[in-house]
Design a protein that fits this description.
The protein is an alpha/beta fold. The protein has three domains: 2-87 and 178-207, Periplasmic binding protein-like II (D-Maltodextrin-Binding Protein, domain 2, 3-Layer(aba) Sandwich); 90-176, Periplasmic binding protein-like II (D-Maltodextrin-Binding Protein, domain 2), CATH 3.40.190.10; 210-276, 2-Layer Sandwich (Alpha-Beta Plaits). The chain is 29% helix and 33% strand. It contains nine helices and 15 strands. The protein has helices at 13-22, 50-59, 69-75, 117-126, 142-145, 160-164, 192-209, 222-228, 257-267, and strands at 2-7, 35-38, 43-48, 64-68, 79-84, 90-96, 111-114, 132-135, 151-156, 168-177, 179-184, 210-218, 236-239, 245-253, 270-276. The chain has a six-stranded mixed sheet with strand order 2-3-1-4-11-5, sandwiched between helices. Strands 8-7-9-6-10 form a five-stranded mixed sheet, covered by helices on one side. A four-stranded antiparallel sheet has the order 13-14-12-15. The radius of gyration is 24 Å and the shape is globular. The mean pLDDT is 93. It is found in: Cytoplasm. Residues 49-203 form the ATP phosphoribosyltransferase catalytic domain. Residues 207-278 form the Histidine biosynthesis HisG C-terminal domain. Keywords: Amino-acid biosynthesis, ATP-binding, Cytoplasm, Glycosyltransferase, Histidine biosynthesis, Magnesium, Metal-binding, Nucleotide-binding, Transferase.
Length: 282
């Protein structure tokens, strides 16, 4: 069986389980379950702390896992990213009191507090900065107020929490993170079970981004209509019983669907329909 690590809590947990469910895998009904066997798909899921997943995968105990890019890099494990999953996006940045520093190059001799000590230590070293790093498990924004550090490094979404603490974001982002699929560094890339899993997950990503669009259009307007709906390869065009008309079917980006429908209508297209895509293989 393919052994897969899945986040058991936090912002990664629910979206990961939802995506796996859409990909056709069984998922746990009880949060207390730590292991779930999906015999039909020959997969065994292990529900673990997101921060530990890279360690288990990197050690070879588990085949692949879903975790955050930030957690993967912070772990220092022998694991690598093989697919982006498009959820749990975040930005990792430095912050401090106004006037303390403007850029990472000015951190020399200071102390940086963070929950991602491995990631920050490497970033400072890559920038040639000699600064101390203090590891905290959470609420790092209070570290400056309590005199533990002059700088903090933390996940930033809107920046409201930092501003409320009297801090400002400085420098360029340390990292842009999101949920990713990981495997042990150096493992074969052609493992058929892993490839099947990746195809399923890719199918979910495509199904979420696209809708199927059907419409009827006059023959003389087909080329202009197809230019609006080129599809992934080429749209399907079928003759209708009513002479001079054809039916067109094509995948279009969901975010553009309403605009495309308006433009098709202006071209004379009628019976314009969109339907959701639940799964696909490209």
């Amino acid at each position: 069986m393919l052994r897969i690590a899945v986040p058991n809590k936090g912002s990664l947990s629910e979206p990961a389980s939802a995506m796996l469910h859409e990909a056709g895998y069984r998922q746990r009904k009880d949060r207390r379950e730590l292991v779930l066997v999906d015999g039909e798909n020959e997969v065994e899921f292990f529900f673990l702390r997101p921060r530990d997943i890279a360690v288990y995968v990197g050690s070879g105990r588990l085949d692949i896992g879903i975790t955050g890019r930030d957690l993967l890099l912070d772990s220092g494990s022998q694991a690598e990213e093989i697919m982006q999953l498009g959820f749990a996006g975040s930005t990792f940045r430095y912050a401090t009191r106004p006037g303390t520093a403007k850029d990472v190059s000015e951190f020399g001799g200071m102390t940086v507090a963070t929950s991602f000590a491995g990631l920050v230590t490497k970033h400072l070293a890559d920038n040639g900065v000699d600064a101390a790093v203090v590891h905290l498990d959470g609420a790092v924004e209070t570290a400056i107020q309590l005199g533990v550090a002059e700088i903090i490094a933390d996940v930033v979404e809107t920046g409201t929490t930092l501003r409320n603490a009297g801090l400002e974001i400085i420098g360029e982002p340390i990292l842009e993170s999101e949920a990713v699929v990981i495997r042990r560094t150096g493992d074969p890339s052609d493992d058929p079970k892993v490839q099947q899993f990746l195809r399923r997950m890719q199918g979910v990503l495509v199904a979420r981004r696209y809708v199927m669009m059907d419409y009827d259009i006059r023959v003389e307007q087909v080329e202009r209509a197809v230019a609006l709906t080129p599809g992934l390869e080429s749209p399907t065009v079928s003759p209708l019983h009513h002479e001079g008309w054809v039916a067109v079917r094509s995948m279009v980006p969901a975010k553009d669907a309403q605009r495309i429908m308006d433009e098709l209508y202006d071209l004379g297209a009628r019976a314009i329909l969109t339907t959701g895509i639940h799964a696909c293989r490209l």
